[in-house]
Amino acid sequence: MTSSVLQLTISAAMTFAIASAQSAEPAQRPPNIIVILADDLGCGDLSLYKGWVKTPRIDRMAMEGMTFTDFHSNSSVCSPTRTAFLTGRYQQRVGIVDVIVGRNEPDTGIPPATPTLSRVFQKSGYATALFGKWHCGYEPRFNPRHLGFDEFVGFLHGGGGYHSPNFWRDGLQPLSLQGYSTDIITDRSLDFIRRHQDKPFFLYVAHQAVHNPYQTRDDTPDEREPGWNQNAVNDVNRPRYKKIVEDLDQSVGRILDTVSELGLAQDTLVFFWSDNGDVRMCPDEVRPYRGGKFSHFEGGHRVPAVAWWPGKIKAGAQSDALLAGFDLFPTLTDLAGISKDNPANLDGSSAKDHFLQQKPMADRDLFFGYEPKLGTAMRRGHWKMIIKGDDLQLYSLKNDLKETTNVAAQNPEITAPMRRAIEQFKQTVIPGS
Hints:
This protein is an alpha/beta fold. The chain contains 10 helices and 16 strands. The protein has 2 domains: 331 residues, Alkaline Phosphatase, subunit A, CATH 3.40.720; 61 residues, Arylsulfatase, C-terminal domain, CATH 3.30.1120. It has a 10-stranded mixed β-sheet with strand order 7-6-5-4-8-1-9-10-2-11, with helices on both faces. The chain has a 4-stranded antiparallel β-sheet with strand order 13-14-15-16, with helices on one face. Strand 6 and strand 7 form a beta hairpin. Helix 5 packs parallel to helix 6. It is globular, with a radius of gyration of 24 Å. The relative contact order is 0.17.
């Protein structure tokens, strides 16, 4: 064999060996996804948004990730918001437009055949779990275990005592758990993360905090003051509420610390947000928006939101993109590389490129329907419209973020097309559509 032929042979062999070695390298691990959902938490409650309660762990999460200033729950109450998040569609299509009141509404819930975010992750080989509040159907057929969650330890109704041991479920089975609700949910979540650190997982951490009753760790049944109104928004409960927010902040920190200690930070996206606005426990002088829970004003549905993924999401990024809870379905599956399994009829839009590269989101209309109690609200750019019966309000959030001045009469060229869009929306998002 000649020298030149030998060299070619050796070169070809080396090229083949390198190619074989490269092809033998394991595929990049799909990211873990953790969604932490607070209950009744407003922007004005957090120091991140210049609020009245210091939340250093959420502040740090924002410094290391992306803070959202125009993120919205799909409703100003919990059941519809959670439904939109899990289905990626307007909650009206599922028929859940108001709070589900436990046993009093046995036929209301997310139908078991509904495509859900958890189902997409489960189908793609992810371990899936929900710890905490469900509130998307009380009857067994609506149980999270039937809707894509491998594990569920939590409660089915909207809220209860933070020291109540007997309302918990392990899947479909009753479970008695001693302890403080925020701690139980956090501890179960950390255990799940540790047990699945070697496999991609989707974890939904659905806190009771900061929903009433306003019970701290010290407000055990044996220590409560006689005649104390645990649900009142007043000066007596304000310090308790503050402590509940602080405990929630510590829970977020414990989750981030565990992810980092296990070496999973660069493989894990954590998204923190709230299911609706606050209950006005926040002092009026620091409340950033008009209205709160059960309101179509910004205080009802503009909520705190932070995305954290070290090495992927730019540290300290600020987003003023108009986003809502149902956008998380296409966004999270897109980030995980499994969006091919998404249903074709999602209403939400993927914000993957916005999260990772701060690319702007396309303009679109966003609707907040809560018929018949509150009417319907709509965002189109910086314009905000609220309609209930004959009452029509239009605000420019660019100039009037607190929605103090109705400018509908002065802007007929804005009012007329937005009103038509709302009417079309109401006719389109009927149950089953």
